[in-house]
Amino acid sequence: xxxxxxxxxxxxxxxxxxxxxxxxxxxxxxxxxxxxxxxxxxxxxxxxxxxxxxxxxxxxxxxxxxxxxxxxxxxxxxxxxxxxxxxxxxxxxxxxxxxxxxxxxxxxxxxxxxxxxxxxxxxxxxxxxxxxxxxxxxxxxxxxxxxxxxxxxxxxxxxxxxxxxxxxxxxxxxxxxxxxxxxxxxxxxxxxxxxxxxxxxxxxxxxxxxxxxxxxxxxxxxxxxxxxxxxxxxxxxxxxxxxxxxxxxxxxxxxxxxxxxxxxxxxxxxxxxxxxxxxxxxxxxxxxxxxxxxxxxxxxxxxxxxxxxxxxxxxxxxxxxxxxxxxxxxxxxxxxxxxxxxxxxxxxxxxxxxxxxxxxxxxxxxxxxxxxxxxxxxxxxxxxxxxxxxxxxxxxxxxxxxxxxxxxxxxxxxxxxxxxxxxxxxxxxxxxxxxxxxxx
Length: 440
Fold this sequence. Notes:
single chain; alpha/beta; 7-stranded mixed β-sheet; two-stranded antiparallel ribbon; 14 helices; 15 strands; 12% strand
């Protein structure tokens, strides 16, 4: 009996040692398998026949992955069942799924050079929405060494250009050119109406000291010390002072208007929001149907003798706007009194001089904005339902009639220029507006 027990103990010990040896070998092979898979994932070696690019000893790894998968599965599930019999119950599909997941991750992270170039040239980014837009075009042919077509490449990284910062009211400097004789008529009307929508952004450039209106405007009256009157020298002098005042500010936009303009400030801000102050913009509206043609001064010192110049200009009576970027380009040729010198050279008033400087000298074209209006066009043709879309309005006495907008509101005796009525039509909740208008 003891002999039988001793023999059984020896058999059991040999079997146990044999099983432990097999498990140790399997564990070693599994470690080798994992090292190969990690090496493949890092360096991107596939089993698609590109053996010439693989280092020695790795060439056969891709073709024998299924064998290693079986061994790995035996380690993961082969403790019970006794010895080699545990490996016989192994289903090879389980290991194949795990390995396939690793290979899929590697394939999706490596984009073939042919596909990468094609995606880079066939994809664009919508600048408004930031989304990827595919352009129409043929895809390049895949070479013999490219990845198989069943592999889906990852789209290239796309970064959209951010929209320029939104223009706000505080980004504007609005300059209004006036003169002493119009303080009590035109200036008073502006201060009661549209000036209230942009008190901190609006400045009045005049030719005298006026403590009364200096107080009403919270010290926003600038005495330019230019001559009084409506002639070329005085007009160019004031325009040059407005331009230099803007250069000394930190504002992004300079918008010039005359004292016979009504400015719809909220609409002006929305309009400027469509343009970038970091680019060259000259925004306004011409009052003539064709470009202006002038001949430069025929002097001995002139380098452009008898040269005809053609350019557009934005009429100052409708208003115009200049971006900070353009103003900085204008500074070397227009600041420090040089604007007046240019006006003297071409012998034209301030708005024409501005167009000559920007369009002819700096080669920046005028961008026409139809929402600007001057008294040189019939105001009655602007329909009331479009008032909110307009940037500026004007008025003028022509012969025995007023060129004004047709709008209900105050009676003609109280408001012959229709500025108060226009303001109450656009913003009826102002205290100056009659209750009958505020109820509409």
